[in-house]
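Progress report, Aim 2. The chain analyzed during this reporting quarter is listed below.
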Amino acid sequence: MPEAKNPVQAVQRSLEIVDVLRDTGGARVTEVAREIGVSKGTAHCHLATLEERGYVVNESGEYKLGLRFIDLAHHAKNRIDIYDIATTEVDALAEESGEMALFTVEEDGEGICLHTAQGEEAVQTEIYVGYRNALYHTAVGKAMLAFMPAKERDQLIQDMEFEAFTPNTITDEEALRTELETIRERGIAYNHGETIQGLVGVGAPIRDQDGTIYGAISIIGPERRMDGERLETEIPEMIRQAVNIIEINITSL
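Predicted structure tokens for the chain:
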């Protein structure tokens, strides 16, 4: 994520408070002050201002995020041109596969989940709309990395801080580049328990005729169901068909 050259401290404090309320689900002034390292008075001033603008609410002394953020999220997602068609296809993927399906885009070197859909047998995960993840250990992330312009990809890989979430996670640049080459050859990316052990993901990028990447979609399920012919052929074919429909609609945007 890019760093501001001349950050405004007051804005930073308010955003830190928003992060604290998001992470805790709600906090009192004393807790907020402790978490961001300011006095109770300073924390209260920021909270009061955010409350006045509708960004936080005060419930018996406990501050929580306000519903105004839902309005902001609505406007933020509307800048994604393919949102409606992509979510329609992701819903269809979830129904057809019975698993969890996702639509993800890349922003500032991270994968941002914009839509999830649950099939009848979908596993429950921590993934939600707005969930952020590094690109190197997810199917959607690797799908986008593999097909983005080489200069952009190289810069993102150079800036990555690899972390082993499971024993299967890629943790070095050379291994990642080798896998990305394989993804470019087959057009499909896999996550074999690299984020959560026992959970398998299959993904593919969404591109226009010029190769511009609009995002990626994936299907996620437990390895006991995501194996053999289903993993190698059936699930990838479902995803390819969905991507094809979305990409055809891109031409009319």
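The longest helix spans residues 228-250. The chain has two domains: 9-68, 80-250. These observations will guide the mutagenesis work planned for the next reporting period.
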